Amino acid sequence: MNREVLTARALNRATLARQLLLERSDRSVLDTIEHMVGMQAQIPLNPYVGLWSRLARFSPDELGQLMLNRRVVRIVAMRATLHLVTADDCLLLRPLMQPVLDAELARHRDHGPALAGVDLAPALEFARTFVAERPRTGSELRHAFAAHFPDLDAAALTYACRNLLAFVQVPPRGVWGHTGQVASTTAEAWLGRPLVGDPSIDDVVVRYLGAFGPATVADVSSWSRLTGMREVLERLRPRLRSFVDEQGRELFDLPGAPRPDPDTPAPSRFLPEYDNVLLSHADRSRFVRDDLRGQPWTARTIQGAVLHDGTFAGTWYIERDRKDSSATLVVDHARLTVRAQTSVGAEGRRFLAFHEPAAASHDVILRRCES
């Protein structure tokens, strides 16, 4: 059977459309976070940048209120990394990702050996009760473990709670305009509901395809870091459509999902560090041009990234001068044309005005980064 071939550019446009990066969406913040099956949140304010680049009318206060009202939470999930997810997805995704978190804890260079062979049940039960009283900082938890379990490594026990209990990081950390130490409690205590007892990985994979597809088996595995994804996709095959990429690898997709014309224009966009759109495929060639592959600085896609024409074009950071209250957005780019620089610069000025509203002045500097 001859299956339709999807080029890297076709895959790029399909994924951009689902990621709301071809044109800004009128979706609500809550609906967007649910659609994207969560957003990377290792750096607390990153979701604000990601949402600004995807939504037509985004207010940081809206996301902050969702966090304060416990409708979205920050919890370790896919790839054992911190994500911002809806309350419902917190209770669904966290138990699904337990095998990933078990493996991450076991291979941890410092804490894994200290916990080998230890019966953790008493310590975890103690921690569950301790943080249910009120959210606790890491320091508070370590001191409590040291007092109640003096024969065990308190730091290792504290790290184990991250992986073995459904710890959420609570506000004000992660709320725009506020600061605060990391303080955690369990999802059950914070949300007042139990984790989903029998979560469906099949349903989650379908949602992944809706947000990141078309995708190979390896792509789904890279996004989640779970094993057994081939069996899941085979179960789902009757509900899916199959393609191949230019290397002949099978791609799975939802029949009705958007697959725009590869020539559809893709505007310049600014993404935060660790944005999932650049981390959720085993083969990231749909976002990195052939002439940029292999250059050392392209590894910086995990930092703040600039997209132009749908592909990785550079990185960004903001310099702040306290003396004159100015903010400068610096973009290191890869041989952008004058026209492309104009597009990136215009989007950069809009982005800087959003990100640094209190600055007395704004400036954007574009610098060519040589290989």
- Report the biggest beta sheet as strand number plus sense, adding barrel if it closes: 6 strands, antiparallel
Residues in helices, as a percent range = 25-40%
* N→C terminal distance: 43 Å
Low-confidence stretches: 296-301
Number of domains: 2
Record the strand order, biggest sheet.
2-4-3-6-7-5
What's the overall average pLDDT, rounded?
94
Sheet/helix structural class: alpha+beta
How much of the residues is beta strand, in percent? 15-25%
Give the radius of gyration.
22 Å
Report the strand count.
14
Question: Secondary-structure element order, as H and E?
Answer: EHHEHHEEHHHHEHHEEHHHHEEEEEEHE
Shape: globular
How many helices? The count is: 15
Feature tags:
globular; 15 helices; single chain; 5-stranded mixed sheet; 371 residues; alpha+beta; 6-stranded antiparallel sheet; 2 domains; 14 strands
Explain what the structure shows.
- The structure is a single chain.
- With 371 residues, the protein is of the alpha+beta class.
- The protein has 2 domains: 23-191, no CATH class; 269-368, no CATH class.
- Helix content is 39%, strand content 18%.
- The protein has 15 helices and 14 strands.
- The chain has helices spanning 8-18, 29-35, 46-52, 60-68, 87-96, 98-106, 111-115, 121-133, 138-148, 154-164, 187-191, 201-212, 217-224, 229-236, 338-355, and strands at residues 5-6, 39-40, 72-76, 82-86, 136-137, 167-169, 183-186, 241-245, 250-253, 269-271, 305-308, 311-321, 326-333, 361-368.
- A hairpin with a 5-residue loop joins strand 3 (72-76) and strand 4.
- It starts with a strand and ends with a strand.
- 41% of the residues are buried.
